[in-house]
Amino acid sequence: xxxxxxxxxxxxxxxxxxxxxxxxxxxxxxxxxxxxxxxxxxxxxxxxxxxxxxxxxxxxxxxxxxxxxxxxxxxxxxxxxxxxxxxxxxxxxxxxxxxxxxxxxxxxxxxxxxxxxxxxxxxxxxxxxxxxxxxxxxxxxxxxxxxxxxxxxxxxxxxxxxxxxxxxxxxxxxxxxxxxxxxxxxxxxxxxxxxxxxxxxxxxxxxxxxxxxxxxxxxxxxxxxxxxxxxxxxxxxxxxxxxxxxxxxxxxxxxxxxxxxxxxxxxxx
Length: 269
Fold this sequence. Notes:
Elements: E1 14-15, E2 25-32, H1 35-46, E3 49-52, E4 60-65, E5 68-75, E6 86-91, H2 95-104, E7 108-116, E8 120-126, E9 132-138, E10 146-147, E11 153-160, H3 163-174, E12 177-180, E13 187-193, E14 196-203, E15 215-221, H4 225-234, E16 238-246, E17 249-255, E18 261-267
Protein name: VOC family protein
InterPro entries: Anthracycline_SecMetBiosynth (IPR052164), Glyas_Bleomycin-R_OHBP_Dase (IPR029068), Glyoxalase_6 (IPR041581), VOC_core (IPR037523)
């Protein structure tokens, strides 16, 4: 499996204006305490620029790369002690029905469903192990508008205790086809839609960070992983797992100055 396959026919390298099939990862969003400093950090790291987005959940901005939307950054309410974390959104044709399915399958719906202005309708949920994800029913805003170039989301992987139970949850909620890795050494599952990989689950048992618990990890495409790591450190970020060669490309696990974890990936083509 190569992560580049995950783009599929409706998400080619370049502009992607097609409506995503239900279950397809379509957006990533980050809620932080200090949006201005966060904009500066990601602007310098990825070349993003920002413009205001829907304000239903408070101040929110969309990150643009060459004028095309790639991600969102919002402000956490000051009274909420939530971890700052990148959150993937999965496409849905009916977010209310998906939210009900989340509840029926043992998950929790923490926010919504609610309308995000003219953009669409959204909900934030968590799986039975506690990992947070979003659901997006597109209207005017279809999601990430460009992929396959540096500064864009390349892949989403769930880090959790074990894959079996949670894979069944995501299969029931989004129609994924879980494809376990045929290895006794790693507890990994690739989630597929119509045969193509769209996300992954990695069971790491007790190796999960105690302050974080199960969580989704967004991988961002970069032109040079080592150079991007050096730039991230200059900007006040932190290296959690140094750059290493993986089957998918050269990757480093890092955190921004507020502690949001993500992966820098120079993907193999």
